[in-house]
Give the backbone structure.
Amino acid sequence: MTAPQSATPQIHWTENGVEQSARWRSESGMAPPKRVVIADDRTTADVAYRLACEGTALLWRGDFQNARQLLQALARRADHKHSKPGKKTKPAKPPANPTEAFHLHRQAQSQRARTLAMLLIPFEADYAIPLRRAPEVQLACNEAYGRGELPFIASLRELLGLIGAHEWRRTGVEIPALEDRIHPHYGVFSPVRGEYVELVATTPLPKGATLGFDIGTGTGVLAAVLAKRGLARVIATDQDPRALRCARENLARLDLDGTVELLEADLFPQGRALLVVCNPPWLPARPSSPIEYAIYDPDSRMLRGFLNGLTEHLAPGGEGWLILSDLAEHLGLRTREELLGWIAAAGLTVLGRNDIKPVHPRAADASDPLHAARSAELTSLWRLGAATA
Protein backbone atom coordinates (compact mmCIF):
# COMPACT_ATOMS: atom_id res chain seq x y z
CA MET A 1 0.00 0.00 0.00
CA THR A 2 1.46 3.36 -1.04
CA ALA A 3 1.24 6.40 1.18
CA PRO A 4 -1.23 9.06 -0.01
CA GLN A 5 0.31 12.07 -1.68
CA SER A 6 0.12 15.35 0.22
CA ALA A 7 -2.68 17.56 -1.06
CA THR A 8 -1.85 20.75 -2.90
CA PRO A 9 -2.45 23.72 -0.57
CA GLN A 10 -5.81 25.37 -1.19
CA ILE A 11 -7.12 28.82 -0.32
CA HIS A 12 -10.84 29.33 0.36
CA TRP A 13 -13.02 32.43 0.27
CA THR A 14 -16.59 33.59 -0.23
CA GLU A 15 -17.42 35.83 -3.22
CA ASN A 16 -20.89 37.07 -4.13
CA GLY A 17 -22.30 34.64 -1.58
CA VAL A 18 -20.60 31.63 -3.18
CA GLU A 19 -17.89 29.53 -1.52
CA GLN A 20 -14.83 29.34 -3.73
CA SER A 21 -11.36 27.82 -3.60
CA ALA A 22 -8.18 27.73 -5.66
CA ARG A 23 -4.66 26.41 -5.56
CA TRP A 24 -2.37 28.38 -3.22
CA ARG A 25 1.22 29.15 -4.16
CA SER A 26 3.94 30.60 -1.94
CA GLU A 27 7.66 30.29 -2.58
CA SER A 28 8.32 31.55 0.96
CA GLY A 29 6.43 28.60 2.43
CA MET A 30 3.65 30.79 3.84
CA ALA A 31 0.48 28.83 4.62
CA PRO A 32 -2.71 29.91 2.84
CA PRO A 33 -4.49 32.64 4.83
CA LYS A 34 -7.52 31.36 6.73
CA ARG A 35 -9.48 34.60 6.39
CA VAL A 36 -9.92 36.17 2.95
CA VAL A 37 -12.02 39.14 1.85
CA ILE A 38 -12.53 40.64 -1.61
CA ALA A 39 -10.84 43.99 -2.23
CA ASP A 40 -10.90 46.39 -5.19
CA ASP A 41 -10.20 49.99 -6.17
CA ARG A 42 -12.60 51.26 -3.48
CA THR A 43 -10.61 49.66 -0.65
CA THR A 44 -8.67 52.28 1.29
CA ALA A 45 -5.10 51.81 2.46
CA ASP A 46 -6.10 52.27 6.11
CA VAL A 47 -8.74 49.54 5.91
CA ALA A 48 -6.41 47.23 3.99
CA TYR A 49 -3.60 47.75 6.49
CA ARG A 50 -5.85 47.07 9.48
CA LEU A 51 -7.14 43.85 7.91
CA ALA A 52 -3.66 42.70 6.91
CA CYS A 53 -2.32 43.30 10.43
CA GLU A 54 -5.18 41.21 11.78
CA GLY A 55 -4.22 38.33 9.48
CA THR A 56 -7.03 38.82 6.94
CA ALA A 57 -5.93 38.54 3.33
CA LEU A 58 -7.32 40.74 0.56
CA LEU A 59 -8.01 39.05 -2.79
CA TRP A 60 -7.75 41.81 -5.36
CA ARG A 61 -10.41 42.26 -8.07
CA GLY A 62 -9.61 45.80 -9.18
CA ASP A 63 -7.01 47.45 -11.38
CA PHE A 64 -3.55 45.84 -11.17
CA GLN A 65 -1.65 49.12 -11.04
CA ASN A 66 -3.91 50.30 -8.21
CA ALA A 67 -3.00 47.12 -6.35
CA ARG A 68 0.70 48.01 -6.70
CA GLN A 69 0.01 51.47 -5.32
CA LEU A 70 -1.93 49.96 -2.43
CA LEU A 71 0.99 47.64 -1.63
CA GLN A 72 3.31 50.66 -1.53
CA ALA A 73 0.89 52.38 0.85
CA LEU A 74 0.85 49.29 3.09
CA ALA A 75 4.66 49.26 3.10
CA ARG A 76 4.78 52.91 4.18
CA ARG A 77 2.40 52.18 7.04
CA ALA A 78 4.38 49.12 8.08
CA ASP A 79 7.62 51.12 8.08
CA HIS A 80 6.15 53.99 10.12
CA LYS A 81 3.66 52.23 12.35
CA HIS A 82 5.15 53.81 15.48
CA SER A 83 5.05 57.37 14.18
CA LYS A 84 1.41 58.19 13.44
CA PRO A 85 0.76 61.90 12.78
CA GLY A 86 -0.78 63.75 15.69
CA LYS A 87 -0.23 60.88 18.12
CA LYS A 88 2.54 60.83 20.67
CA THR A 89 4.03 57.42 21.27
CA LYS A 90 6.48 56.31 23.88
CA PRO A 91 9.93 55.78 22.35
CA ALA A 92 10.88 52.13 21.98
CA LYS A 93 13.40 50.87 24.48
CA PRO A 94 16.77 50.51 22.72
CA PRO A 95 18.14 46.95 22.39
CA ALA A 96 20.33 45.87 25.28
CA ASN A 97 23.01 44.44 22.96
CA PRO A 98 23.70 43.63 19.28
CA THR A 99 22.19 40.15 19.61
CA GLU A 100 18.90 41.56 20.83
CA ALA A 101 19.01 44.18 18.05
CA PHE A 102 19.43 41.39 15.49
CA HIS A 103 16.51 39.33 16.80
CA LEU A 104 14.25 42.39 17.08
CA HIS A 105 15.18 43.39 13.53
CA ARG A 106 14.40 39.92 12.17
CA GLN A 107 11.12 39.86 14.10
CA ALA A 108 10.12 43.22 12.64
CA GLN A 109 11.11 42.18 9.12
CA SER A 110 9.15 38.94 9.46
CA GLN A 111 6.04 40.78 10.66
CA ARG A 112 6.39 43.29 7.82
CA ALA A 113 6.69 40.49 5.27
CA ARG A 114 3.58 38.73 6.64
CA THR A 115 1.56 41.93 6.53
CA LEU A 116 2.54 42.83 2.97
CA ALA A 117 1.95 39.25 1.79
CA MET A 118 -1.76 39.63 2.61
CA LEU A 119 -2.54 41.39 -0.69
CA LEU A 120 -3.35 38.57 -3.11
CA ILE A 121 -3.89 38.34 -6.86
CA PRO A 122 -5.29 35.60 -9.11
CA PHE A 123 -3.39 33.81 -11.88
CA GLU A 124 -4.66 31.75 -14.79
CA ALA A 125 -3.03 28.42 -15.60
CA ASP A 126 -0.76 30.10 -18.18
CA TYR A 127 0.27 32.79 -15.64
CA ALA A 128 -1.93 35.46 -17.19
CA ILE A 129 -3.37 37.82 -14.56
CA PRO A 130 -7.12 38.47 -15.06
CA LEU A 131 -7.01 42.08 -13.85
CA ARG A 132 -7.19 45.41 -15.66
CA ARG A 133 -3.79 46.82 -16.73
CA ALA A 134 -2.00 43.67 -15.59
CA PRO A 135 1.49 43.18 -17.08
CA GLU A 136 2.62 40.11 -18.95
CA VAL A 137 4.51 38.05 -16.37
CA GLN A 138 4.57 34.66 -18.07
CA LEU A 139 8.33 34.63 -18.62
CA ALA A 140 9.16 35.63 -15.04
CA CYS A 141 6.73 33.04 -13.65
CA ASN A 142 7.99 30.29 -15.94
CA GLU A 143 11.56 30.97 -14.80
CA ALA A 144 10.58 30.71 -11.12
CA TYR A 145 7.74 28.19 -11.09
CA GLY A 146 8.22 26.11 -14.21
CA ARG A 147 5.43 25.41 -16.67
CA GLY A 148 1.98 26.43 -15.46
CA GLU A 149 -0.72 23.80 -15.00
CA LEU A 150 -3.57 25.15 -12.87
CA PRO A 151 -4.97 28.55 -11.89
CA PHE A 152 -3.79 29.72 -8.47
CA ILE A 153 -3.67 32.56 -5.97
CA ALA A 154 -0.42 34.17 -4.76
CA SER A 155 0.67 37.35 -3.04
CA LEU A 156 1.36 40.44 -5.13
CA ARG A 157 4.56 40.95 -3.15
CA GLU A 158 5.84 37.54 -4.28
CA LEU A 159 5.01 38.34 -7.89
CA LEU A 160 6.98 41.60 -7.70
CA GLY A 161 9.89 39.57 -6.31
CA LEU A 162 9.66 37.24 -9.31
CA ILE A 163 9.67 40.20 -11.68
CA GLY A 164 12.71 41.68 -9.90
CA ALA A 165 14.51 38.33 -10.09
CA HIS A 166 13.73 38.12 -13.80
CA GLU A 167 15.40 41.51 -14.32
CA TRP A 168 18.48 40.38 -12.32
CA ARG A 169 18.63 37.27 -14.49
CA ARG A 170 18.26 39.28 -17.69
CA THR A 171 20.84 42.00 -16.92
CA GLY A 172 23.20 40.00 -14.69
CA VAL A 173 25.76 41.11 -12.11
CA GLU A 174 29.11 42.48 -13.23
CA ILE A 175 32.03 40.37 -11.93
CA PRO A 176 35.34 42.18 -12.52
CA ALA A 177 37.38 39.01 -11.90
CA LEU A 178 35.58 37.35 -14.82
CA GLU A 179 35.42 40.47 -17.00
CA ASP A 180 31.86 39.35 -17.56
CA ARG A 181 28.50 38.97 -15.86
CA ILE A 182 26.87 36.29 -13.74
CA HIS A 183 23.11 35.87 -14.21
CA PRO A 184 21.39 34.71 -10.99
CA HIS A 185 18.12 32.77 -11.12
CA TYR A 186 15.15 33.24 -8.82
CA GLY A 187 15.87 31.73 -5.41
CA VAL A 188 19.65 31.56 -6.00
CA PHE A 189 21.85 33.95 -4.03
CA SER A 190 23.13 36.78 -6.21
CA PRO A 191 26.88 37.61 -5.94
CA VAL A 192 26.29 41.29 -5.21
CA ARG A 193 28.76 41.19 -2.31
CA GLY A 194 31.74 41.29 -4.65
CA GLU A 195 34.41 41.41 -1.95
CA TYR A 196 34.32 37.66 -1.37
CA VAL A 197 34.73 37.03 -5.09
CA GLU A 198 37.75 39.35 -5.08
CA LEU A 199 39.33 37.34 -2.25
CA VAL A 200 39.04 34.10 -4.26
CA ALA A 201 40.36 35.87 -7.36
CA THR A 202 43.49 37.26 -5.68
CA THR A 203 44.62 34.71 -3.05
CA PRO A 204 47.57 32.66 -4.38
CA LEU A 205 46.61 29.14 -5.44
CA PRO A 206 48.24 26.17 -3.69
CA LYS A 207 51.37 25.10 -5.55
CA GLY A 208 50.61 22.50 -8.19
CA ALA A 209 46.84 22.79 -7.90
CA THR A 210 45.03 21.58 -11.03
CA LEU A 211 41.83 20.26 -9.44
CA GLY A 212 39.53 22.27 -7.19
CA PHE A 213 36.23 21.66 -5.39
CA ASP A 214 33.63 24.44 -5.02
CA ILE A 215 31.25 23.48 -2.21
CA GLY A 216 27.78 25.03 -2.45
CA THR A 217 28.35 26.67 -5.81
CA GLY A 218 25.11 28.67 -6.12
CA THR A 219 25.37 30.74 -9.31
CA GLY A 220 28.70 29.06 -10.12
CA VAL A 221 30.61 32.32 -9.72
CA LEU A 222 33.49 30.95 -7.60
CA ALA A 223 33.86 27.85 -9.77
CA ALA A 224 34.10 30.15 -12.78
CA VAL A 225 36.75 32.30 -11.08
CA LEU A 226 38.82 29.22 -10.23
CA ALA A 227 38.56 27.95 -13.80
CA LYS A 228 39.54 31.37 -15.17
CA ARG A 229 42.56 31.34 -12.85
CA GLY A 230 43.86 28.24 -14.56
CA LEU A 231 42.61 25.17 -12.70
CA ALA A 232 42.30 22.40 -15.27
CA ARG A 233 39.22 20.94 -13.59
CA VAL A 234 36.72 22.16 -11.00
CA ILE A 235 33.99 20.04 -9.42
CA ALA A 236 31.19 22.27 -8.13
CA THR A 237 28.49 20.89 -5.84
CA ASP A 238 25.11 22.06 -4.61
CA GLN A 239 22.05 20.29 -3.28
CA ASP A 240 19.57 22.80 -4.75
CA PRO A 241 18.43 21.88 -8.29
CA ARG A 242 17.69 25.55 -8.99
CA ALA A 243 21.27 26.50 -8.16
CA LEU A 244 22.65 23.76 -10.39
CA ARG A 245 20.50 24.91 -13.32
CA CYS A 246 21.65 28.48 -12.72
CA ALA A 247 25.33 27.50 -12.52
CA ARG A 248 25.02 25.35 -15.64
CA GLU A 249 23.66 28.29 -17.67
CA ASN A 250 26.31 30.68 -16.37
CA LEU A 251 29.19 28.30 -17.03
CA ALA A 252 27.95 27.56 -20.53
CA ARG A 253 27.64 31.29 -21.24
CA LEU A 254 31.23 31.77 -20.03
CA ASP A 255 32.41 28.77 -22.12
CA LEU A 256 33.61 27.04 -18.95
CA ASP A 257 31.23 24.08 -18.93
CA GLY A 258 34.03 21.88 -20.27
CA THR A 259 36.23 22.75 -17.28
CA VAL A 260 33.66 22.78 -14.46
CA GLU A 261 31.70 19.64 -13.59
CA LEU A 262 28.44 20.20 -11.67
CA LEU A 263 27.30 17.63 -9.15
CA GLU A 264 24.20 17.46 -6.95
CA ALA A 265 25.58 16.70 -3.50
CA ASP A 266 25.33 17.78 0.12
CA LEU A 267 28.78 19.35 0.57
CA PHE A 268 31.67 17.26 -0.82
CA PRO A 269 32.16 15.19 -3.97
CA GLN A 270 34.17 12.01 -3.77
CA GLY A 271 37.94 12.18 -3.86
CA ARG A 272 40.56 14.74 -2.83
CA ALA A 273 41.79 18.02 -4.26
CA LEU A 274 44.60 20.48 -3.57
CA LEU A 275 42.02 23.27 -3.27
CA VAL A 276 38.57 23.07 -1.66
CA VAL A 277 36.55 26.29 -1.51
CA CYS A 278 33.38 26.97 0.48
CA ASN A 279 31.32 30.13 1.01
CA PRO A 280 28.64 28.99 3.49
CA PRO A 281 25.76 31.18 4.72
CA TRP A 282 27.29 33.65 7.14
CA LEU A 283 24.73 33.90 9.95
CA PRO A 284 23.92 31.00 12.33
CA ALA A 285 20.17 31.59 12.56
CA ARG A 286 17.03 29.80 11.43
CA PRO A 287 15.65 30.83 8.02
CA SER A 288 12.02 31.95 7.98
CA SER A 289 11.59 30.81 4.35
CA PRO A 290 13.41 28.50 1.90
CA ILE A 291 14.91 31.47 0.06
CA GLU A 292 16.72 32.58 3.23
CA TYR A 293 18.89 29.45 3.36
CA ALA A 294 21.50 31.38 1.34
CA ILE A 295 21.87 33.79 4.27
CA TYR A 296 21.14 31.79 7.40
CA ASP A 297 22.84 28.53 8.42
CA PRO A 298 20.87 26.90 11.29
CA ASP A 299 23.24 25.79 14.05
CA SER A 300 26.12 26.51 11.62
CA ARG A 301 25.33 23.18 9.94
CA MET A 302 27.04 23.87 6.62
CA LEU A 303 30.00 25.65 8.19
CA ARG A 304 30.67 22.83 10.62
CA GLY A 305 29.98 20.17 7.99
CA PHE A 306 32.60 21.74 5.74
CA LEU A 307 35.18 21.94 8.51
CA ASN A 308 34.54 18.41 9.77
CA GLY A 309 34.78 16.85 6.31
CA LEU A 310 37.61 18.91 4.90
CA THR A 311 40.61 16.77 5.90
CA GLU A 312 39.07 13.73 4.16
CA HIS A 313 38.93 15.66 0.89
CA LEU A 314 42.24 17.56 0.94
CA ALA A 315 45.13 16.14 -1.02
CA PRO A 316 48.51 16.25 0.80
CA GLY A 317 49.66 19.87 0.98
CA GLY A 318 46.23 21.10 -0.04
CA GLU A 319 44.29 24.09 1.25
CA GLY A 320 40.68 24.62 2.21
CA TRP A 321 39.46 28.16 1.59
CA LEU A 322 36.66 29.17 3.93
CA ILE A 323 35.02 32.47 2.94
CA LEU A 324 33.25 33.90 5.96
CA SER A 325 32.09 37.25 7.26
CA ASP A 326 32.60 38.09 10.94
CA LEU A 327 29.19 39.80 11.11
CA ALA A 328 27.93 36.93 13.26
CA GLU A 329 30.66 37.72 15.80
CA HIS A 330 29.72 41.41 15.95
CA LEU A 331 26.09 40.40 16.44
CA GLY A 332 26.96 38.01 19.27
CA LEU A 333 25.70 34.97 17.36
CA ARG A 334 29.09 33.23 17.28
CA THR A 335 32.45 33.96 18.87
CA ARG A 336 35.87 33.85 17.26
CA GLU A 337 36.85 31.32 19.93
CA GLU A 338 34.04 29.01 18.81
CA LEU A 339 35.15 29.19 15.20
CA LEU A 340 38.79 28.51 16.07
CA GLY A 341 37.68 25.65 18.31
CA TRP A 342 35.72 24.04 15.48
CA ILE A 343 38.72 24.40 13.17
CA ALA A 344 41.05 22.72 15.67
CA ALA A 345 38.54 19.97 16.53
CA ALA A 346 38.27 19.12 12.83
CA GLY A 347 42.02 18.44 12.67
CA LEU A 348 42.75 21.65 10.78
CA THR A 349 45.22 24.47 11.21
CA VAL A 350 45.04 28.07 10.00
CA LEU A 351 47.67 28.67 7.31
CA GLY A 352 46.71 32.30 6.83
CA ARG A 353 43.82 34.70 6.48
CA ASN A 354 43.07 37.46 3.98
CA ASP A 355 40.59 40.15 5.04
CA ILE A 356 38.62 42.70 3.07
CA LYS A 357 36.22 45.46 4.11
CA PRO A 358 32.71 45.27 2.64
CA VAL A 359 31.62 48.21 0.52
CA HIS A 360 27.89 47.48 0.25
CA PRO A 361 25.51 50.41 1.02
CA ARG A 362 24.29 49.04 4.35
CA ALA A 363 27.79 49.23 5.81
CA ALA A 364 27.54 53.03 5.67
CA ASP A 365 23.83 53.38 6.48
CA ALA A 366 23.62 54.84 9.99
CA SER A 367 19.83 54.36 10.02
CA ASP A 368 20.17 50.57 9.71
CA PRO A 369 19.26 48.89 13.03
CA LEU A 370 22.38 46.73 12.68
CA HIS A 371 24.69 49.57 11.64
CA ALA A 372 27.14 49.14 14.53
CA ALA A 373 27.80 45.52 13.56
CA ARG A 374 27.78 46.11 9.79
CA SER A 375 30.24 49.03 10.01
CA ALA A 376 32.75 46.80 11.85
CA GLU A 377 32.32 43.79 9.54
CA LEU A 378 35.20 42.10 7.74
CA THR A 379 34.97 39.37 5.15
CA SER A 380 37.78 36.83 5.40
CA LEU A 381 39.25 34.02 3.36
CA TRP A 382 40.62 31.52 5.86
CA ARG A 383 43.36 29.30 4.42
CA LEU A 384 43.07 25.97 6.22
CA GLY A 385 45.28 22.92 6.06
CA ALA A 386 45.46 19.53 7.74
CA ALA A 387 47.10 19.81 11.16
CA THR A 388 50.33 17.90 11.51
CA ALA A 389 50.64 15.41 14.36
Q: What stands out?
A: The radius of gyration is 24 Å. The first strand starts at residue 10 and ends at 15. The longest helix spans residues 98-116. Residues 11 and 21 are 5 Å apart (CA to CA).
